[in-house]
Design a protein that fits this description.
mainly beta; about 0% helix; four-stranded antiparallel β-sheet; five-stranded antiparallel β-sheet; about 375 residues
Length: about 375
């Protein structure tokens, strides 16, 4: 008789084997607030994780007027414009445009009189200019309204009923809602000595033309006055190193902060006579790619500014009686590219920061609840 080995023991062993451990699902900011580690008395939270696709520009605007909290807008390397709105710590993304090539320029304003309220404008590598319009249904219309043939759109400034586009190769373009069939008319105004990497519309002054401050790869901080008789350029400061970003501190006095590629941060203050005084306030790591000014200290009289860049670190600079001090408040998983000031948390009296870059994330940084509001009860 032939003896056969029974398979029962093997089946029994298989049945008794411990189940494989299941990986925990990744935290999802669309479902709940996702905390991120921060330093020096700050709290971090994830707004969106875009994987390996970098997010080059991030800003905050009142895009959906019916919501109390401003929206967050991020532009990524694949040409997607991420419109994100919040609800009790959760962030819901609305991906728009899908240009196929990176987007970089971004601004918001009531430029088009044919549309009620303000619109969002973006453009990028392909020289495409897009308009985004919100609706009460939480839907967003996006349409192509203009082209800058052979030129990349890096910076957009909405000034009244005009859009000023700064491109590479260095040039200034104008786009106005005067084109046929509801389109815009876009034309080149002049060539510039270098690519403008950031620009800020300065606060309006009674009886004077609008002014735009620009920072360029050519190392120039310049002022563009949009006078009725024509454009006027004034060089406020020039360096042998490229300038990258600008931030505005509303006065008086009016102050601009500019970053340099070699890691310097400069402060430019406008005097009562219209002259500007420049000083270096920080010697940091090379590759600053973001700067944001605002109230980041519980004391409203303390001057603060934040920087972000290739060091992966968001650093807060605080002016003290003994000079400027720098401290790291957050470290991202890759190089930084943009930093913006926002007001997204009413539980403190300070401003918030939005950071984005090569790490493919938008990160919200805020002071804890009660900062600057010591008279109020705070949850333990």
């Amino acid at each position: 008789m032939v003896m056969r080995r029974l398979a029962f023991p093997a089946l029994l062993i298989g049945a008794c084997a411990a189940p494989q451990a299941q990986e925990a699902p990744a935290p999802d900011p669309t479902q709940a607030e996702v905390p991120l580690p921060a330093l020096s008395g700050w709290r971090g939270a994830l707004v969106i994780d875009n994987g390996k696709t970098g997010i080059w520009t991030v800003k905050s605007f009142d895009f959906f007027p019916r919501y109390g909290c401003p929206e967050v807008i991020g532009l990524d390397d694949k040409g997607v414009c991420h419109v994100l709105y919040s609800y009790s710590g959760k962030w819901t993304p609305i991906p728009m445009v899908h240009d196929g090539q990176w987007l970089g320029g971004l601004d918001h304003g009531d430029v088009d009189p044919r549309i009620p309220g303000a619109e969002l404008y973006t453009g990028g590598l392909g020289g495409t200019l897009w308009q985004l319009v919100p609706h009460l249904t939480r839907h967003v219309d996006a349409r192509l309204i203009g082209l800058t043939p052979g030129a990349e759109i890096h910076t957009i400034v909405a000034a009244g009923s005009e859009l000023y586009l700064f491109t590479a190769p260095g040039a200034l373009w104008l786009s106005t809602p005067t084109g046929p069939d509801g389109r815009f008319e876009t034309r080149k105004l002049e060539e510039l000595p270098g690519r403008v990497r950031d620009a800020v519309l300065l606060p309006a002054r009674s009886g004077t033309p609008p002014r735009i401050a620009t920072a360029s790869r050519a190392g120039r901080l310049e002022l563009l006055e949009l006078a009725p008789e024509g454009r006027r350029w004034t060089t406020l400061h020039q360096e042998s190193m490229g300038m990258g970003r600008l931030a505005l501190r509303r006065g008086p006095p009016l102050v601009l902060y500019s970053t340099l590629d070699d890691g310097r941060l400069m402060r430019h203050e406008e005097g009562p006579d219209g002259s500007w005084r420049a000083e270096t306030i920080y010697l940091g790591p090379q590759g600053h790619r973001g700067v944001a000014a605002g109230r980041f200290d519980a004391d409203p009289n303390v001057e603060t500014v934040a920087v972000f860049g290739y060091s992966h670190k968001v650093e807060l600079l605080t002016r003290t009686a003994h000079g400027w001090k720098a401290e790291t408040i957050f470290e991202d998983r890759d190089k930084g590219h943009w930093l913006s000031t926002a007001e997204l948390d009413g539980r403190n009296s300070t401003d918030e920061l939005l950071a984005s870059g090569y790490g493919g994330r938008i990160v919200l940084l805020a002071r804890p609840p009660g900062s600057g509001r010591t008279e109020l009860a705070v949850a333990p």
